[in-house]
Amino acid sequence: MLQLAAEIMDKNICPELALTAHRLVMGDGSLDAEIMLIGEAPGKKEDLTGLPFVGASGTLLDAMLASVQLERKDVYITSIVKYRPPNNRDPKVAEKAAFWPYQLRQIKIIQPKVIITLGRHSMECFLPGMRIGDIHGQAQRIQLDGLEVIVLPLFHPAAALYKGSLRQTLLEDFLKLPELIKTPRSLPDIS
Question: What is the CATH number that goes with domain 2-181?
Fold first, then answer.
């Protein structure tokens, strides 16, 4: 991951974001994880610490992991966009596109079985044309550059903090994770 981070900085990916951010936030956790959680972009606390999901959303994410007997060290956590957008605005399409090749390379390094997208911006990168309100909690099997993964789209923990009614939905959707981990990496060919 250090090599990827160096390449992002050397190639000056999203220079406008880099100018306003304190640091690049690549991700954190196990490089051998079966589960990869991918958010949208770093927030203020993430930008200051260099670690993903360390603010209020991170506290909720930690509780979600604990609900299925997991800790941060058991998973890998990152975001589609690796620099904090100014004033925590939504990441722009061009910013997500600029970081996408590096996100794919992170996925290839870790080779997770399950990718949990946290929020619509992350979900749209894996399941274009879908709406988070329609497919949250519904696992989708997809191919990414030859790697078959299960994508579990979830609401972003921040959304559950702002809209309390989403909290229970988010927690219930997350409880599907243990069964997804048990599924075979690829479906058998029955033809």
Answer: 3.40.470.10
